[in-house]
């Protein structure tokens, strides 16, 4: 049954636009964007300065290691990403993007300030261990409480900043005009450029200062950056277009499910009337059924009693009667879930490289020349450089050559890129596993904490991790962005971060299960602070096995939900 042709849509359509009407003479446009980009750049420089070297800081200054260390980093990283969901909800439903961004920036500043204090005040940390292979001086509970308070405030700040920054920048342009759309595209380019510059500065200069000069200075710098982030954002307040909060898509999804459950006995068929309700873009909404998917939730928009509408034609109870657009939003979200699950396994790989890869680097030969020590945190830069180099080669070299040879524009489609990324992930874990085996055996043979194997040997696995992101993660973000309606782009970003969050939590669970099982057998694979006493390569091979299962899942199931073009949302 085609609802468009066989059912009636309630004529109560409210012409509203989610795009703010910008007064370009006084607010919005590039006069506002410079402050927004400055806010994001300073925040990213600060946060990446911590993320890139947190493993090293907790290992060397808090005497942490083994499963407990990895749990802290995984849970914190997962929370930073997960809190983007409630952050997006609070922004859309209550505070608006300006206040959510401001409060998030302040929270991050306070959190980084606490982390800087832990570096500056020795009393806030345990005494350093002289022998890293036999350290019996763990931090006290109150010292961990101070550390966790700082990390918690940073996670809350990330939850407010991540889902709002790009969306708030987009609010400054009138995307109903050709000029506004062009300016928005330019804004995206400058945003990613500033993001990359901040990332490079953080992972090179600041990480080097932290590792080789002073942790205090290394954390004061990002704290100062966050202070500048808040200051510049406030200075630009008079230039911003601040859209009023109009309600959250996440809340709407819950309402649709609740309304559909309440009307579960309603029969959908010929002659039923659907409540059209307000439209996000001011156009008439239509409910399109495709592939008989989620027919049940359509009952949420069925008008069973004229008294469900007030005199203005609006729903009296949004928990019993939802609009057609709210139903479509739910269908959009559920339609991307099979492919979204694929991203979780990919992020499991990259998350573990950012943790265990750095721990490997700590216990490898890092000296070059007479006395130059390569900071272990620099290895994270390898993945990013690989990603950037591949994208540049693909766009500027490979595609033009292919166009000359074939005479037509030809690009790798989403299915191909996701599958290539998963294969790269499998190769990454195999390389990481065999390298860890060689690193550990060399260290045991020499009888030292630091293996004589050079840190250079880590380059292949970090490069493969970068290629995994370049293919799978980028394709996943593109998929989410393309498949979501324009008014749900912020939701797409939050859902993308959620996949990374779930990956971190799954890894935490997996690591603890492995540790518990292998500890009962007499030798834990991951429990010792000294990697030389663990069997980390087995864990890498398990993650590689997860990638194999992910490839099969995507190839034979999830790939059917990937379509290269989306016309009028009919693929959903």
Overall geometry: globular
Structure classification: mainly alpha
Biggest sheet overview: 2 strands, parallel
Trace the largest sheet across and list its strands.
1-2
- Which stretches of 5+ consecutive residues score pLDDT under 50? 1-23, 282-291, 566-572
User: In the CATH hierarchy, what is the architecture of the largest domain at level 2?
Assistant: Up-down Bundle
What is the top-level CATH class of the largest domain?
Answer: Mainly Alpha
Rg: 26 Å
CATH superfamily of the largest domain: MFS general substrate transporter like domains
> How much of the sequence is in beta strands?
under 5%
**Could you tell me how far the N terminus lies from the C terminus, measured between alpha carbons in angstroms?**
16 Å
Order of helices and strands: HEHHHHHHHHHEHEEEHHEHHH
Question: In CATH terms, what is the fold-level topology of the largest domain?
Answer: Growth Hormone, Chain: A
Proportion of helical residues: 55-70%
Count the DSSP helices: 16
Mean pLDDT: 82
Please count the beta strands (DSSP E, at least 2 residues each): 6
Instruction: Work out the count of structural domains.
Output: 3
GO cellular component, one term: membrane
Pfam families: PTR2
Biased composition (Polar residues): 1-20
Organism: Brassica campestris
Outline the structure in words:
With 572 residues, this protein is mostly helical. It has 3 domains: 3-18 and 246-322, no CATH class; 20-245, Growth Hormone, Chain: A (Up-down Bundle); 327-572, Up-down Bundle (Growth Hormone, Chain: A). Helix content is 64%, strand content 2%. The chain is built from 16 helices and 6 strands. Strands 1-2 form a two-stranded parallel ribbon. The protein has a two-stranded parallel ribbon with strand order 3-6. Strands 4-5 form a two-stranded antiparallel ribbon. α13 (414-446) runs antiparallel to α14 (459-483). The longest helix has 39 residues, at 324-362. The chain is globular and about 80 Å long. It comes from Brassica campestris (Field mustard). InterPro entries: MFS_trans_sf, POT_fam. The chain crosses the membrane at residues 64-86, 98-122, 142-161, 188-209, 215-236, 378-397, 418-435, 455-479, 491-514, 538-558.
